[in-house]
Amino acid sequence: MLTRVCSGVGRGPPEQDADRVATDTPAVANANDEEDLMLYRTRIAAAITMLAAGVATAAPPKVVTLPNSDPKCFEPWASTTKLFQYPAKKGPYRIALANGYIANTWRIQMIKTAKAYAAQPEVAAKLKEFKVVSTGEDVAAQIAAINNFIDSGYDAIVVNAQNPAAFKPVIKRANDAGVVLVAFDNILDTEEAINVNVDQKGLGKYWAEWLVKNVPNGGKVLEVRGVSGTSVDRDRHEGIGEVLKASGKKWDVVEVIGKWDDPTAQKVTADAIAVHKKFDGITAQGGDTGVVQAMLDAKHPMVPFGGETENGFRKFCGKYGAQGLKCASAGTGPAQVAVAIKTAIAALEGKVVPQSVKLPLAKAEYPSMKEGTDYYPAQNDNFFVGNAFPTCGINFTAQEIMGQTEANVK
Q1: Going by CATH, does the domain composed of 62-197+334-359+391-401 fall within 3.40.50.1370?
Q2: If you average pLDDT over every residue of the chain, what do you get?
Q3: Minimal CB count within 10 Å: which of 66, 102, 196, 240?
């Protein structure tokens, strides 16, 4: 049996261009002679011809049966996953990162990682320009940014989408313009663009399975959710709910919105403890260091916890595991943005890539978490551990990442 209580903060074309060229010419009406009129008509005809040629050469990716260009890095999501091949373009390329929400440590580290990857010599040699913009939680603003990149002639756009279902028109525009669109982390509900992600629903299931195993009699669970409206929050939440419901145990789930952010998660956890007094287990999608800090501040007993991969959270797990903070820490590091950029470059080079790329999870569990391997006392609490994908040749030092900033690149 599964009951839920919500608590805490609130949830929170080229043809058109041709028409515009043809109609936005008021000077034609005022032309003084036939020669001027013919000149305007010639210019209009040339513009329309150029736009039509652009439409003719730009095309969506082909679905092919050729071999995957890099099956170790670009692992297909399933055996039925389509393989894409875009027309090869000559580099170097103009690539943009269109991020949405920025106000948490994962997103900040992700942007720093993207910049660090773009700065690596073998990657930088393939880039003419790399631009970064974060638009916040406004879905319309993120879509407008992507449209602007398309209009500005960028070759590829990687996006961490604020909403999985709102991008259909912009996906079509990108395909019509021959722009490679790669979504990662918070992906898109489509098979017309490339998605790069971990099994987010499977991650939620993993955390819930940990609670089922370590809270044998069921009980009250605090679920600290992420950013509302995103595919990651939705999929993880669904995975948690499915496992708890199927367990046959009685669960009382209290939901709060932590936005994957330590201060926000700490506050809503403190509020939930003040109202509900005691929880038998906790699962959090991010901001986990803040969640544990709220437990410490409230002198809440340490309980089993399924959470993300923040270094601070894992340090707490190592310190308080014997006192009851039995942790399953799993997720994917912000370096998945580097895999998304690598995928975009491969697609621009005409290489065969899956429509949906599946990334591995980085896992560590009590009592096997080891200092120096699974967490690092000398590193910042906000640093996400497991920020590498060796099968893609993607590895970063903390210094590489922390040497970058999260600011937009204009």
Answers
A1: no
A2: 87
A3: 66
The pTM of this model reads: 0.81
pLDDT tops 50 at residue 122: yes
pLDDT of 269-303, one tens digit each?
999 999 999 999 999 999 999 999 999 999 999 99
Residue ranges of domains in the chain? 2-9+200-331, 62-197+334-359+391-401
In the beta sheet, which residues pair with residue 63? 84
- Across the range 299-311, mean pLDDT stands at 97
258 neighbors 290 (Cβ within 8 angstroms): yes
Find out whether 91 and 126 touch, Cβ atoms under 8 Å. yes
The set of long-range contacts for 161-164, using a CB threshold of 8 Å and a minimum separation of 24, is 161/100, 161/186, 161/187, 161/188, 161/230, 161/231, 162/100, 162/101, 162/135, 162/137, 162/138, 162/186, 162/227, 162/229, 162/230, 163/139, 163/229, 163/230, 164/188, 164/189, 164/230, 164/231, 164/234
Number of C-alpha atoms within 13 angstroms, CB side, residue 116?
A: 27
Query: C-alpha distances in angstroms, 405 versus 101, 178, 378?
Result: 16, 31, 21
Are residues 40 and 48 in contact, defined by beta-carbon separation less than 8 angstroms?
no
Each residue of 340-395: pLDDT tens digit?
Answer: 999 999 999 999 999 999 999 889 999 999 998 899 998 889 888 888 899 999 98
Identify whether the C-beta of residue 254 lies closer than 8 Å to the C-beta of residue 272: yes
Distance CA 270, CA 273 (A): 5
For residue 4, CA distances in Å to 245, 250, 257, 334 come to 11, 11, 14, 30
Q: What is the pLDDT of residue 28?
A: 32
Same topology for domains 2-9+200-331 and 62-197+334-359+391-401, yes or no? Answer: yes
